[in-house]
Design goal:
By secondary structure, this protein is mainly alpha-helical. It has five helices and no strands.
Length: 75
Amino acid sequence: MKSILRIVILLFLVLLCRGENGIKAKVCSKQISAGTDVCSEMICARICKQAIKGQQVEGHCVTSDTCNCIYRCQA
């Protein structure tokens, strides 16, 4: 049951973070590299806020990755 739920969540995240959000992710990534903490305001807000708080988001993704972790994990 948990694995089915994980697959559903994974698919939801992939759909949520595609297209226009893919462009925003690149912008977000550059701003994170520059030290700007804008991720939670730009895309996938709830998940990014979890990451920023240091909570595990998906698999090995933790706070140091912020938004980038979502795209790496969902690739």
